[in-house]
């Protein structure tokens, strides 16, 4: 590299900096180096594939124009990844598909990207969607009373046009395990991307964390955020697994940025926003500010429908597989747990049928699925419900329970409610304290101990509490 070339490169960078501003310049071009000038081509390098693909798709023409202002005979800017410079670089044919987000990066003129033979995951790695199950489509989703609303909202989101105003943002779906959250979220992703109006990115919370953390390590946070901007619908599954203060802060920024920009956000979690204990209040309220829908446990009818649909699907591959209605009804009645166990039960019948050649009978089903039969899952009890029902029982208001009033007619119900919260939910003492008007966890502990001691001696109180528990679990 001659000094004149380096000087020209400095002037080009100066031009770029003026055009795009200091922030953008340092995020994207700060680590860009001049490698070589050769006739009509100039070769530049950047340290990561992500940077390369981002610059290619967003700033290709700009970079070329800045160079042309310096040297008019230049017609081509070639961008390479620095770490790869010393290795053998296998160039893809000119105009070949560029690496980028899910392969969707627009093509461009003027810069030919070189691509590593090993497969240039680039942004894919940092931001690429989590794998999708091809069976999780709307066609395969059976709608019943417990999931009508979630299904309707999901369909609406999937069909949304770029120009439509976003109706509810975020769409927040919560339910216990195996009730179809992931199925619905992936159906949105399949359908949305098939329609092609808005790009839908499906990420598990883990993937979001991983993507973000690795993005931070290899490029700037701004780069990651800019990449997210290309997305029309961001879908995040299992939000309850989002961990770590800085990830959560980033999640919060991303959420705000997307929502404020009118992008759709869809979230699934095993609990309502108010129970996401580790998230701070602002995020929780933002999450609760869209549409929050719960999928209730699958009713027996819905379970039967799901089983029927499953058998029909299985018969496409195994035409001899036949499950009599009485067997389906038996499974629907007894395997109450969740969609996953229904699937497990059918898989066993199928395996048995294939391996032994014996037809599926009720007797065989009873034997095969015995261990999947569980008593009805206890209902998920919510702290709000506890407060509501206790308040009603003792004729005080819910705000009395949360207040700092210390009169006996409020103190006892409050202690009972905290005790029930500890015994009927999985919430921690500090969380319960927070939900009872911001009390300290030692106060909650005191209440729990107090009631535990009392029920041993006070038969009336013990019965009252039993009755409250029954009401809550109905
Ligand atoms: P979650 O993410 O809520 O834990 P999944 O979406 O993974 O649950 O669902 C578990 C299984 O149950 C999947 O095989 C899914 O296809 C099936 N399932 C759940 N609900 C339905 C439904 N309404 N229709 C068809 N299959 C369902
Ligand atoms: Mg799931």
Topology, please?
Elements: H1 3-20, H2 22-29, E1 33-38, E2 41-46, H3 49-70, E3 76-81, E4 111-113, H4 123-127, H5 148-159, E5 171-174, H6 181-195, E6 200-204, H7 205-218, H8 221-228, E7 233-237, H9 245-260, E8 264-269, H10 281-288, E9 291-294, H11 300-317, H12 325-334, H13 339-356, H14 362-368, H15 383-394, H16 398-402, H17 408-424, H18 429-435, H19 441-457, H20 459-473
Parallel strand pairs: 2-3, 3-4, 5-8, 5-9, 6-7, 7-8
Antiparallel strand pairs: 1-2
The chain binds adenosine-5'-diphosphate (ADP) and magnesium ion (MG).
Structure write-up:
There is one protein chain. The protein is α/β, with parallel strands linked by helices and 474 residues long. Helices cover 53% and strands 9% of the residues. It has a five-stranded parallel β-sheet, sandwiched between helices. The chain is flat and about 95 Å long. The N and C termini lie far apart (78 Å). It binds adenosine-5'-diphosphate and magnesium ion. The site of magnesium ion has 4 residues, from helix 6.
């Amino acid at each position: 590299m001659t000094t004149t070339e380096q000087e020209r490169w400095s002037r080009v960078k100066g031009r770029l900096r003026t055009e795009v501003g200091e922030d953008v310049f340092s995020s994207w071009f700060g680590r860009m180096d001049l490698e070589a000038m050769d006739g009509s081509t100039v070769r530049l390098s950047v340290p990561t594939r992500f940077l390369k693909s981002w610059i290619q798709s967003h700033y290709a023409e700009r970079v070329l124009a800045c160079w042309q202002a310096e040297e008019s005979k230049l017609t081509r800017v070639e961008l390479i990844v620095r770490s790869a410079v010393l290795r053998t670089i296998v160039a893809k044919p000119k105009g070949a598909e560029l690496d980028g987000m899910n392969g969707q990066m627009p093509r461009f003129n003027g810069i030919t990207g070189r691509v590593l033979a090993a497969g240039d995951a680039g942004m894919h790695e940092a931001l690429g969607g989590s794998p999708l199950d091809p069976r999780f489509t709307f066609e395969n989703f059976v709608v019943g009373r417990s999931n009508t609303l979630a299904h309707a909202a999901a369909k609406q989101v999937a069909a949304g046009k770029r120009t439509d105003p976003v109706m509810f943002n975020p769409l927040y779906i919560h339910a216990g395990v195996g009730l179809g959250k992931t199925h619905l979220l992936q159906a949105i992703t399949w359908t949305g991307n098939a329609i092609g109006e808005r790009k839908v990115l499906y990420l598990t919370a883990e993937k979001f964390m991983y993507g973000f953390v690795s993005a931070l390590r290899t490029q700037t946070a701004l780069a990651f955020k800019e990449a997210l901007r290309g997305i029309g619908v961001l879908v995040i599954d299992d939000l309850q697994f989002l961990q770590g203060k800085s990830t959560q802060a980033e999640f919060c920024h991303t959420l705000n940025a997307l929502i404020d920009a009118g992008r759709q956000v869809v979230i699934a979690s095993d609990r309502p926003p108010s129970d996401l204990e580790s998230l701070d209040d602002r995020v929780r309220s933002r999450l609760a500010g869209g549409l929050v829908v719960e999928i209730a446990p699958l009713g027996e009818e819905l379970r039967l429908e799901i089983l029927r649909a499953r058998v029909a699907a299985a018969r496409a591959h195994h035409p001899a597989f036949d499950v009599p209605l009485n067997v389906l009804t038996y499974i629907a009645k007894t395997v109450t747990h969740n969609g996953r166990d229904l699937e497990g039960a059918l898989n066993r019948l199928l395996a048995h049928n294939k391996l032994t050649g014996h037809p599926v009978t009720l007797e065989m089903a009873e034997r095969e699925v015995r261990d999947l039969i569980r008593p009805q899952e206890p209902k998920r009890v919510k702290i709000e419900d506890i407060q509501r029902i206790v308040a009603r029982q003792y004729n005080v208001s819910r705000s009395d329970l949360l207040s700092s009033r210390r009169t006996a007619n409020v103190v006892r119900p409050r202690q009972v409610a905290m005790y029930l919260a500890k015994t009927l939910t999985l919430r921690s003492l500090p969380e319960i304290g927070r939900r009872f008007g911001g009390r300290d966890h030692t106060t909650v502990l005191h209440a729990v101990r107090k009631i535990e001691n009392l029920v041993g001696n006070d038969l009336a109180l013990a019965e009252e509490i039993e009755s409250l528990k029954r009401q809550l679990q109905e």
